Amino acid sequence: MTGEGRYILSFGAGVNTAALMVLLIKKRMRFDEAVFADTGGEVPETYEFLEVARKYLAEHGKNLTVVKNKSGSLYDACTRRSVIPSKMWRWSTRDFKVYPIHAYYKTIDDHIFEYLGIAYDEIHRMKRSQADFVTSIFPLVDMRITREGCIRIIKKAGLPVPVKSGCFFCPFNNADRWREIHDTHPDLFERAVALEEGSKHFPRQNLRSGGLRNLVERRFQDQPRTRVVGDEPCGANCMV
Description:
This protein is of the alpha/beta class. Helix content is 40%, strand content 10%. It folds into two domains: 6-156, 3-Layer(aba) Sandwich (Rossmann fold), CATH 3.40.50.620; 175-219, no CATH class.
């Protein structure tokens, strides 16, 4: 072990980590690579932005490493178990985000300094790593950069502003996010409905209060659709 440490951006392909990626490069901060944990459940736009980020990083001599859970996608895991992701236990974040990233970190013979994309107006989301081989760093908080500031940074760099990242069947999706998925990717929305209604805990547990079909009937009729560009609330390693 060198003792110098390796500085890695935990990249979620959302607004915050996209801005942080730009800042790390523009400010010439110690930055060795970016790592993205792929659950297999992102919307197509997120995977498209992932390639934009990969190109941007490559232009500045940085790599983007994609890691995955060895068992396959999160959606398939939920289907096999007949469950939906849990807002309380958050095993999906643990097993399909944190564990794959940490498994990769363990292949590096050095201490990891992990950049996390928590904006200044989201300090309540700060969670430091519990792993003794990882030190969490929050540059956006240190520099008091808000989510709106992140959007300005992305635009100034000439990059497209990414849509909200996160699984299309995330239980933390708000009504606007579900509306966007319903209108833009009806096939993914129907897959989310199938997962919800196929759960052994349905209807006691669902992806949205009252169920997704009821949400369509109650909220989506004759309402304008808005593009969601916020970041997800399920943890520092998930969807930032």
